[in-house]
User: Fold Transcriptional regulator, ArsR family from Azospirillum lipoferum.
Amino acid sequence: MKAATNAFAALAQETRLAVFRLLIAVGPNGLTAGDLAQQVGVPASTLSHHLATLERAGLLRSWRVQRQIFYASDYEGTRRLIAFLMEDCCQGRPELCSTDLTLAVPCGPDGCDHEA
Assistant:
């Protein structure tokens, strides 16, 4: 419950939600902090606070390559949040709620395996 609350709090801000959605769309290779700042239209100094909040919430991961920091979606953290939302769906039968949502759960850094 606490992890889900932290994730929702992190996403309850327009810039962080835009960053999260952008990183979900670009996939596991992510983007550099500079590219993120440019694409979201936020100064890098402001963006660093938002990125740290999303990372603490378990929704992003980061790594350094030489002088650049890359950010990408933390698929496991996102999967846990989706699973939390679907846990009690349709009296414990999430497969009844929506095919699209249940198919989103098996996606990860290596792509989506909808057969899982």
